[in-house]
């Protein structure tokens, strides 16, 4: 397949770019390539179509550097919006972040929606539906490591304290069975981390603290249906939560990322995750 002139493609919209890059990458991939290599081929095709090189997200950069460095580069670096992602409006709302970022990850996005839907069906109060809707945001679009802490911090200025608390501590609570509540240690964790895995002391301490806290049950509400919110056959529309978001999330009028709050930079990182600086 002939490579189209990059300059001619500066006007590609997001879906055209993805489609053309996939076609180009399919042409260049072989069956004996592993998945990681195929992803690299796809990324290279996109950069070629855009005539610009794009920095990989810098989280975890130290590990890349310690194990051999970053690939060589030439030309200018991307500093504006990432053309591979849908553009965000000037004053983005939480709904914009769902529609243009979180839901791009179908599995992760669906997990949030299903989890919140279960909370709604079980008659949980609105702020707890919101907590379930946002609980793994960080995993999906910011950072996995310590995702409860990052996720709680991200939303703290805009929600009731209990919502951020529940999100922060669900990370530790997930590791401890609560037989009185019918909550078991996740079977997936046995597979992910091994049967001999034991949590580090900070997670143990957070659990001890959370277990005695007045909002313990709010943290556990996130854990309780987490296990059942990965149904690939069930689809939930994010618009079902529009009113709950409206009543329980204080949307800044300047837009998330531009309100000068202590966490605005975290939202801007989600808007432009691959800027060079
Ligand atoms: Fe989680
Ligand atoms: Fe979850």
Task: Please give the structural blueprint.
Layout: H1 14-28, H2 35-50, H3 61-66, H4 94-100, H5 106-121, H6 126-134, H7 137-141, H8 147-155, H9 161-173, H10 187-193, H11 201-211, H12 216-226, H13 242-248, H14 264-271
The site of one fe (ii) ion (FE2) has 4 residues, from loops.
Brief write-up:
The chain has helices spanning 14-28, 35-50, 61-66, 94-100, 106-121, 126-134, 137-141, 147-155, 161-173, 187-193, 201-211, 216-226, 242-248, 264-271. With 277 residues, it is mainly α. The chain has 2 domains: 14-77, no CATH class; 94-271, Hypothetical protein af1432 (Orthogonal Bundle).
Walk me through the structure:
With 277 residues, this protein is mainly α. The chain folds into two domains: 14-77, no CATH class; 94-271, Hypothetical protein af1432 (Orthogonal Bundle). Helix content is 51%, strand content 0%. The protein contains 14 helices and no strands. Helix 5 (106-121) packs antiparallel against helix 6. The longest helix is centred in the N-terminal third of the chain and has 16 residues, at 35-50. Mean pLDDT is 89; it is low at 1-9. Residues 135-136, 147, 170 line the site of one fe (ii) ion.
